[in-house]
Amino acid sequence: MSTILSLLLIQVIVVFIVDISGAIDSLKSGLKWLLTKGKMSGSDYRLKPFDCSLCSTWWTCLIYLLCVGKFTIPFIAFVAFQCTFCAQIKDTILVVGDLYTKFIRLIYKHLID
Fold first, then answer.
1. DSSP assignment letter at 72
2. What is the mean pLDDT of the segment spanning 18-44?
3. Among 1, 40, 56, 89, which residue's CB has the most CB atoms within a 10 Å radius?
4. Could you tell me if 46 and 27 are in contact, meaning their C-beta atoms sit under 8 angstroms apart?
């Protein structure tokens, strides 16, 4: 059970880093600037598997399974299944953040009025 929980938490972390934080866009922009010696910057290109949360989750979870000695068919199948939900995890994180903001504003409104 702890392996499955760890895999799910890895997915949440990867989705946050890749899809929400903007860290990958900054990395791509810096890499483009570095490779062109400062002539170009921007993140308007693909850098798979690093800018794809599905790909990053897949490879990160497989590496985790190898490191903890749980590289078995059922766990690999679970990782494949969970990777299909990366977009929904992103949306869930954003919705939770929006609900939290709405809740704080509601409390603030009632305290001020």
1. -
2. 80
3. 56
4. no
pLDDT score of 28 more than 90: no
Pairwise CA distance, residues 43 & 1, whole Å = 38
d(CA 43, CA 29): 5
Cα separation, 61 vs 93, whole angstroms: 20
pTM over 0.90: no
**Is the distance from CB of 53 to CB of 91 less than 8 angstroms?**
no
User: 3-state SS of 7-58?
Assistant: HHHHHHHHHHHHHHCCHHHHHHHHHHHHHCCCCCCCCCCCCCCCCCHHHHHH
Reading the block at residue 23, the tokens are 């860290």
The neighbour count for residue 86, using CB atoms within 10 Å, is 22
